[in-house]
Description:
The complex is a heterodimer.
Chain A: H1 3-7, H2 22-62, H3 77-82, H4 85-118, H5 124-136, H6 139-149, H7 156-165, H8 177-202, H9 205-213, H10 218-247, H11 250-256, H12 264-273, H13 280-305, H14 329-356, H15 371-377, H16 380-413, H17 419-427, H18 434-446, H19 458-482, H20 486-494, H21 499-528, H22 533-536, H23 544-553, H24 557-588
Helix pairs in contact in A: 2-13, 2-17, 2-18, 4-5, 4-8, 4-10, 5-8, 5-14, 6-11, 6-14, 6-24, 8-10, 8-11, 9-10, 10-13, 12-13, 13-18, 14-24, 15-24, 16-17, 16-19, 16-21, 18-19, 19-21, 20-21, 21-24, 23-24
Chain B: E1 2-13, E2 16-27, E3 31-35, H1 42-50, E4 57-62, E5 65-69, E6 74-75, E7 83-86, H2 98-108, H3 113-126, H4 142-154, E8 160-164, H5 172-189, E9 192-197, H6 200-206, E10 209-214, E11 217-222, H7 224-229, H8 234-239, E12 244-255, E13 261-267, E14 270-276, E15 285-290, E16 295-297, E17 307-319, E18 323-330, E19 333-340, E20 350-356, E21 360-364
Parallel strand pairs in B: 3-9, 3-10, 7-8, 8-9, 14-21
Antiparallel strand pairs in B: 1-2, 1-4, 4-5, 5-6, 10-11, 12-13, 12-15, 13-14, 15-21, 16-20, 17-18, 17-20, 18-19
Helix pairs in contact in B: 2-3, 2-4, 3-4
Amino acid sequence: MTDNTAGTLRGSKLADKPLAGPNSLAFRLSRYFTGRDAAVLTLVLILGFLAVYPLAMLFYGSLHSTPPGMAGEFNLDGYRSIFTASNMVVLLNTVGISLAKTIPALLMAVLLAWIVARTDTPYRDKLEVLITLPFFVPPILTAMAWGMLGNPQVGLLNQVWKWATGSQTSIINVYSYGGVVWHMIQYSTPFLFLFIVDIFRAMDPSLEESSRMCGASRWRTFRNITLMLMLPALTNSFILSFIRGIESFESPLFFGTPAKITVITTEIYNSINHRATPDYQYATALSFAIMALMFILVIWQWRLLRGRTFSTVTGKGYAPNVMKLGKWKWVTFGFCILFFFVTVVLPIGQLAIGSFFRFFGFYSRDMLTLEHYSAVLGNAEVWRAFSNTMLLGLLGATATMVLGSVVAYVSIRTRWRGRRLIDALAWLPWMMPGMVLGIGFLWAFAMLPGPIPIYGTIWALLLAYMALGTPVSVRVMTSAYAQLSYDLEECSRVHGASFFQTLWRILIALAWPSFAVGWVLAFFGIMRELSASILLYSVGSEVLSVVLLRLWSNGQAEQVSVIGLFMMLLVIVFRWAQLRFIKNRISTL
Amino acid sequence: MAAITLENVSRHFGSVAAVDNVNLNVDAGEFVTLLGPSGCGKTTTLRMVAGLEQNTGGRIAIDNQVVSDANASFFIPPERRMLGMVFQSYAIWPHMTVFDNVAYPLRIRRKSTQEIAEKVKTALRLVEMENYADRPAPALSGGQQQRVAIARALVFEPRVLLLDEPLSNLDARLRTQTGDEFRALQKRLGITSLYVTHDQGEAMALSDRIVVMHSGHILQIGSPEEIYRRPANRGVAGFFGSPNFLPSKVQACAPQADGSFLLTLDGPGWVGPCGCSSALAVGTDVLVMVRPENMRIADKASIGAGEMSWTGPIVQSIFRGTHRSIVAETPAGRLNIDVPSVHNPAVGESITLAADSKAVWATPTN
Lengths: 589, 366
């Protein structure tokens, strides 16, 4: 080195200056570190209770010969009893139905996304809102509506068909494989659409333009470039949708069970609710088996996605290439409208019609009545379920999002010890269908030490909803934080704000629109939840979906229609508010 | 008085040393630039001063008060170091107006509303942005965001101003202008500044002193002229412009009044005098740095005693507007020369090049 560098070494006069109170600060530091560890430990405990504990109890229960809370012995009878020929059929049904709905739903979603994102179809932005609406409608409502529309004897569609053709035979029977698949397609398509449309939009148009410049036709470019770029994301969406198909409960319950078509979720449900003595060990062992299936799927998904998740989504706002369709734009417009009509207008229309006639299926003027409205409004049980649902929705969505925000923050914005564990724990419920989690919690609450009266209260449902919602809330908040550069936080720290001041004034101030979006999603999730609720509710803690199912089983389809209409109204109001207020806020950032 | 002191400061990521034993004193009011290619540790050094990164070795003091000492596990978090900082991305908070952004450090310190209004106004006037106070931050251009970031960093009169490549996101013309304005402002306020950049031009135009860094080490510290004219080694010399390096041997070595040494050199096909920073034994191999702009085309007769010269044919001539780049094939190797662009010697023509010994500098070969 030269004299120049040597010259700067003279700063060692610092050595004789005493360090200003290192002891007190070292003490403060050590407190700071233990505080951080305590925070991580608290999170691990909460998430452990929500995910690991029910899972462990599930395993315990699968080996235990008697129902939760009773003395019994440990054996492998549960696992022995699930390996039967009829369960082989159940497994094939489950996988087959999920495949049969995922493939057409994916094709339809790609087509709709392409129409909305890449063509000059008129009113594309409005169409997008309409197309995604079915995703927010609780499946139980459309299931009931389609039960009325496609009823082989008195279904509205069959009546219209008979009236129009003079035929005596019905053409539609929703109580069939076709019915189950059809109902699943209706809410899978908008779910997939939401994923795919953003990928279409985020693609750099120069990637396609350069293909055109190399001499490839429009169609060839679409096949060789556009689709290939989207392939990782499409595969991911496919697996995601397939997993949700396996977890699906409403469609096989409503359309499969009457036709003696059983899938894993309904088999678990039936073995607890529809047998003379509930066979908990069998149900629990089956739940554990489905978890194994999920685990394999999730591992497969991870392996496929390793290292190429966000390859095409750059986050840059490109103006994507828009194809001029000419006259065809009215065809694509019509297709979107048709989709909306079939998936939203028909079911809502059926609920509206059903609510005004004395008996559904008998639509003549003298049958018009308002008695179902007065019956529902005067039904204390319905009101109780309504207030329970609202309370659980508000509390559950808030708690889920707060938990998700903290977990996402710790796992991606800090380098704290244990952050990966927290991330993994929060992700665990993703593999548990609501039905399985419900059974896990059933055991978990029964096995709680001492007099902790959770089972049978609405807090049982709250905990289950939080567990089910956490993976999504973590995901929403993770992507929200990922968009905020570290500089924004660090700049605040350098200019004098403490960790918590920065959290409040910068991070929360910037991330709250995403929080709100996630909150609405969580709220919808709770409002539609049936499979865990049906296992965990008891008298006094019913929620709307449970009451709907009970009324439906009692044959009171008309009252169901009334409640369904109110829920539908709620969905539309929330969705409108979300689009109107939150989206605006996000776009200004 | 030292405003910033770094003593044996290191930062290890696992077994990799991003910054290795760095020593630096920045005097009060001084403008010091950390310069180096990306990955050389300059930004990590700045972030350690800011407290955004914790040093794994050595200690850091600001205003002679230790803010971080790795051996004593002593660390003051960034918010209590009283620093202003301008980020490369500006980090203008998009959910606030210009006024709110600049007022933030004052509000955090619970100043009165009146004081905040006054100080923000003053700070915005300094950067000529007082008319934009009510604008939402995302509605600003890059240059305006940069000014707001500077105003925000200055508004609470910090002890030291840290700047992390603040000009790199601006276009070329605006970069020069903003840089000059900022330098004038810094001199006027007399605020100690530590600046990080990879742009040599920027570093030379702005700094009192430049710290050249490479792979976590300091190569040289000195004034811009010193670093440009008297580089400590080939690495530093090569970092500024594209000088010629001529291998040669030391024939004689004589100490000079300013502490440097005057060498007499013997290269292939030429001999001449040349300055050097250290005493070298006769027969040592050295590299002589000659910058293209310090050479001239000369008549053989006009070459003075204090000059060295080379002769050879021109192999390439490129017109660059401000000057003409010529490559000549000489016994000492291919030489690049910059001459005024009105000169237009033909390719193939043999020319003689001369350079003043004050403008050349010898560095050890390693």
